[in-house]
Amino acid sequence: MTCRGHNCSNTKLIGAHIIPRGFANLIRADRNSELLKVADDGVSKAFPQLGETDGNILCADCDGLLGKNDGYAVDVCRKFKADDRANLFEDKSVEAERFSKFILSLLWRASISKRGRYCQVVTFGPYERVAREIIFGARPISEMRAFKLIVSRLRSRRHDVDRIIIEPVRFKFEKLNVYSFLLAGFRVLAVLDGRELGPEFDALIMNRTNVFRGTYLEFETLPEFKWLLSAFAANEKPLKKPVLADR
Ligand SMILES: [Zn+2]
Fold this sequence. Notes:
Elements: E1 13-17, H1 21-28, E2 36-39, E3 42-45, E4 53-59, H2 60-79, E5 88-91, H3 96-112, H4 116-121, H5 128-135, E6 147-155, E7 164-173, E8 176-183, E9 186-192, H6 206-209, E10 212-218, H7 223-231, E11 243-245
Parallel strand pairs: 2-11, 6-10, 7-11
Antiparallel strand pairs: 1-4, 2-3, 5-10, 6-9, 7-8, 8-9
Helix pairs in contact: 2-3, 3-5
Bound molecules: zinc ion.
């Protein structure tokens, strides 16, 4: 096995996280808090607690290079201050390009990994190479027109939305191929499709506007919420524990 990093031929590979372990740590909030794994067949303790790794994709150096943007994105999520009344968030202090590259690199790792259900779901096909060049800094993200990132912030009065990760699922959005996941209070829609979205989305495509901007969404209106509730056997308890979910 050779490292899949850009221009790397290292054969000494390490256990690389697909969803960075910093996110599992972030939603656990403290070391004693047990991360739950939710799937269609029920709720159990997550194993491993910091999320799955793949020992066949990256060497330590390449994993470390991607880890810089991983750590940056964890910080962005940790420091985000939600506004209870606004319809739109916008924070010019966040490097939107860096955050966009992180999302692309998470999905790219899922696309080259064979671990976990969601890694079977995410396939980059002809975009694998250009995505790799971008996330390792060999070309600008503006050269990947097929990638269109739209990020929303979740809001809920009852549920601890900051402490939920739902692994990527694939569906059609405006007839385009899209991957969606929940990440520590954010809902990510990552379009991977050569066709364009309508002009009404222009102001929200983060990797083009280069502004960390998005809409607020009520958690309880999302299909992800309904799915989580059914996984918790439809009891009416608020979701207060950290959750890593495989939808
Ligand atoms: Zn490497």
